[in-house]
Amino acid sequence: MSEVPACPACQSTYSYFDGSSFICPECAHEWTQADIDDAEAESQVTDSVGNVLSDGDIVTVIKDLKIKGSSSVVKVGTKVKNIRLVDGDHDIDCKIDGIGAMKLKSEFVKKVS
């Protein structure tokens, strides 16, 4: 443990390690390495079968998706290339051939190996 992380509460860089936990002298916030690991695990975006997604991945759609405000449908098996992960309910930003720019939920896609 060579580098002490910044405080997750106030982003202070003056935090220090004290035995089993990290302490921030500015806001008195205390946290452990397990808290840091849990936060990193929550921030990962996974597909419908639990594979971790990252920017630039190729995914396929696993369910027919109706496009709101249109009569078009994204069919099962549609391959989506070069995805971008974003924050929010629809956590994938992509461009689908023949349809255009869209946002998808990660629960409706599967990562291509």
UniProtKB/TrEMBL annotation:
Entry-linked Pfam families: YjdM, Zn_Ribbon_YjdM
Domain Protein YjdM C-terminal: residue ranges: 45-112
Recorded GO MF terms: hydrolase activity
Keyword Membrane found: no
Protein YjdM N-terminal domain ranges (all copies): 4-32
Keywords recorded for this protein, A-Z: Hydrolase
Family membership: Belongs to the YjdM family.
Protein's name in the database: Phosphonoacetate hydrolase
